[in-house]
């Protein structure tokens, strides 16, 4: 017994030391409000001990807390199993939830990355004013305060330029650090004149200068282009940024870091030529090789290169039997830019006959069937592995039969397409996704969000289709209504990476 007590005492002491060494403060309902009110800026994580994402975040969060300690920026955490009421009071619905507190009355969601460097960078930005006023003694340190910073060199009496820069800084303060210099001598030492903006960065050429007319849109575009590495890296932290950039993305798949580094050097001159027009990035083929299939590449043959026109969702894979060298890739990218390459269309074979009441659509028949301007078309985007899609199938078949045997058989089409094996121009985030393309208005499809009953589908087609087509549904024993489509789809949502 004495031995057990000794072990417990030692373990307890070890836990106390570990807790004492942590720079993340654990909060409870008794300590939360006082802690928030006594600190100007706090990032709080609401977590559950069993949550896998929380466990993955823990070491990154701890590292960020240590890095931010000297800046007096506090990181805290709340165990939502032990403190369920506290988490409920703060609207926590999933784990981990991170929120930025400037007192109890000013709370904003954390929207940064979940790596230590990203958390540190984000919270430093939160701690500073939208624009930090700099002088000859502070500007040098500010240039390297983050991976990307923007410094405006503007005369103090240039009200219009100052207001424009401050407006953009308020908009993008979570993304970049912004500084302002009003001393002409400091601008001259930097080699620029009033008004100018210099974007300093820790990669590529080190800095870029903006000297055009001060306009929020123009500066925003300049910053986005200049802040993107010539050859970056696609991963969970950067994927959404590349997808929202509004320009094509050229992927370089490779299995080793050495290979990715070598290929980056090969394509760098091409990336320089198309900077701001095409983004270039490597991707770890060992971790994310399955993503190659999404841009119509084989998933077992690397290295590989492909261009994804994100805006149009068109894919241009480079021949995987060819070597990736500067000459051939340069020619491929030039031809892509000139519109001389046809996109690769992943499509199942066109059905020889349509069997069953539901019309089977493939990529090669998509325009012919879905965009038939004379017909209302209800289309289900499904995945073969999706359990909700399988559950829907018999009802969807019955719905199709009702219309096929009605006066609207030539005006309404009930269709489906395997969105995993066919390229589709639509944005599909979960399965099943169901849309109605009304006759005469194919540019404005309506996404279905109701219960998955035949009656509700019929009502949806009646309300949103050109022909107001309603069919009579046979009366069946009353059943509990199916969950809303938008809710079920959440369970099957999947990320590209």
From TrEMBL:
Record-annotated membrane-spanning stretches: none
Bias kind Basic and acidic residues: ranges: 487-497
Region (Disordered): 472-497
Domain of life assignment: Eukaryota
Residue spans of biased composition, Low complexity class: 472-486
Signal peptide: 1-20
Main location (coarse class): endoplasmic reticulum
Subcellular compartments: Endoplasmic reticulum lumen
Domain Thioredoxin: 9-170, 336-466
Record-listed E.C. numbers: 5.3.4.1
GO CC terms in record: endoplasmic reticulum lumen
Keywords (A to Z) from UniProt: Disulfide bond, Endoplasmic reticulum, Isomerase, Redox-active center, Repeat, Signal
Single annotated GO MF: protein-disulfide reductase activity
GO biological process: protein folding; response to endoplasmic reticulum stress
Catalytic activity: Catalyzes the rearrangement of -S-S- bonds in proteins
Disulphide bonds in the chain: 51-54, 386-389
Record-stated family: Belongs to the protein disulfide isomerase family.
Annotated function: Participates in the folding of proteins containing disulfide bonds, may be involved in glycosylation, prolyl hydroxylation and triglyceride transfer.
Protein name stated in the entry: Protein disulfide-isomerase
């Amino acid at each position: 017994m004495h031995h057990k007590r000794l072990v417990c005492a030692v373990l307890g002491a070890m836990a106390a030391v570990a807790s004492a060494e942590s720079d993340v403060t654990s909060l409870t309902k008794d300590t939360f409000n006082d802690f928030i009110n006594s600190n100007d800026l706090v990032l709080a994580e609401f977590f559950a001990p069993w949550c896998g994402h929380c466990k993955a975040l823990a070491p990154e969060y701890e590292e960020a807390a240590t890095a931010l300690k000297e800046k007096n920026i506090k990181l805290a955490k709340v165990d939502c199993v032990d403190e369920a009421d506290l988490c409920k009071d703060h609207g926590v619905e999933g784990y981990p939830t991170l929120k930025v507190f400037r007192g109890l009355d000013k709370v904003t969601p954390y929207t940064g990355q979940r790596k230590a460097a990203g958390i540190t960078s984000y919270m430093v930005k939160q701690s500073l004013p939208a624009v930090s006023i700099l002088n000859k003694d502070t500007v040098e340190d500010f240039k390297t305060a983050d991976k990307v910073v923007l410094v405006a060199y503007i005369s103090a009496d240039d009200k219009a330029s100052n207001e424009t820069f401050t407006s953009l800084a308020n908009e993008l303060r979570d993304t970049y650090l912004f500084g302002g210099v009003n001393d002409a001598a400091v601008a001259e030492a930097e080699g620029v004149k009033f008004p100018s903006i210099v974007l300093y960065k820790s990669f590529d050429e080190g800095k870029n200068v903006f000297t055009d007319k001060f306009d929020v849109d123009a500066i925003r575009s300049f910053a986005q282009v200049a802040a993107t590495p010539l050859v970056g890296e696609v991963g969970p932290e950067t994927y959404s940024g590349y997808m929202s950039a509004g320009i094509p993305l050229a992927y370089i798949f490779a299995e080793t870091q050495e290979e990715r580094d070598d290929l980056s050097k090969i394509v760098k001159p091409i990336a320089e030529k198309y900077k701001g027009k095409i983004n270039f990035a490597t991707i770890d083929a060992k971790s994310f090789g399955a993503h190659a299939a999404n841009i119509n590449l084989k998933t077992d043959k690397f290295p590989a290169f492909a261009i994804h026109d994100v805006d149009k969702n068109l894919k241009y894979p480079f021949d995987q039997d060819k070597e990736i060298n500067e000459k051939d890739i340069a020619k491929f990218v030039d031809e892509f830019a000139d519109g001389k390459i046809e996109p690769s269309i992943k499509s199942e074979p066109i059905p020889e006959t349509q069997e069953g009441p539901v019309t089977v659509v493939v990529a090669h028949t998509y325009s012919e069937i879905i965009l038939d301007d004379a017909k209302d078309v209800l289309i289900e985007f499904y995945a073969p592995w999706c359990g909700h899609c399988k559950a829907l199938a018999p009802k969807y078949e019955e719905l199709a039969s009702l219309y096929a045997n009605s006066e609207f058989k030539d005006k309404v089409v009930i269709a489906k397409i395997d969105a995993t094996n066919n390229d589709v121009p639509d944005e599909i985030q979960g399965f099943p996704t169901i849309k109605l393309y009304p006759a005469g208005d194919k540019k404005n499809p309506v996404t279905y969000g109701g219960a998955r009953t035949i009656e509700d589908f019929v009502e949806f087609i009646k309300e949103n289709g050109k022909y107001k087509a309603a069919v009579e549904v046979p009366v069946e024993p009353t059943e509990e209504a199916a969950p809303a489509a938008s809710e079920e789809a959440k369970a099957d949502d999947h990320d590209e990476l």
